[in-house]
Amino acid sequence: MSKRQRPVLTTSRPLLFAALGAALFVWACAPVGPTPTAELTLAPTPTYTPQPSMLVQVQIVNVELPSITVLAGTTVTWVQKDATPHTTTSGSTGVFSGKGWDSPPLERDQTFSHVFTEPGLFPYTCRIHPDMNATVKVPPLDCGC
Predict the structure, then answer these.
(1) Which residues contact 99 (CB under 8 A, 6 or more apart)?
(2) Could you give the count of Cα atoms lying within 13 Å of 88 in the half-sphere of its Cβ?
């Protein structure tokens, strides 16, 4: 009588151990307890303190005043580069608005400065040449523009 031999499953054992290992890994990595939820925390809105050291230089060239955008607290310095004199005067069509700034006539290479402390749109002109008009834009601090 011959003894019945059990078949040797050499190829199945590694698969069995791999499956058990994967199941154990998934079980070990499963979260315990309630699933955490993300909390949204808003950072405080940053505040901006204008620094008086911010400087912008604008050149008056070819009988043209440039329009510019600056932050509040910026000192704008106009540099007169034309052969003929010009002014930088708040207002339009050569007329001083009555508030703001009004430079004397500037000869070539002379300068005039003004600090823009508040947001707004500031038209300016040349009193000598009423067709020379431009604006200085100072956006609000929370504008993002």
Answers:
(1) 90
(2) 27
Residue 109 lies in a domain: yes
Determine the Cα–Cα distance for residues 43 and 23; give it in Å rounded to an integer. Answer: 42
CB 106 within 8 A of CB 87: yes
DSSP state of 107: P
H-run or E-run covering 134: strand 133-138
Residue of 62, 119, 114 lying closest to 88 (CA atoms) = 114
Domain assignment of residue 123, given as a range: 55-138
pLDDT tens figures, 88-103: 999 999 999 999 999 9
DSSP H or E stretch at residue 27:
helix 12-29
Mean pLDDT, the chain, integer: 79
CATH number (domain holding residue 97): 2.60.40.420
**What size, in residues, is the chain?**
145
Q: Are 127 and 109 within 8 A, CB to CB? A: no
Q: Is the pTM of this model over 0.70?
A: no
DSSP state of 129: -
Give the C-alpha separation, 143 to 45, whole Å.
13
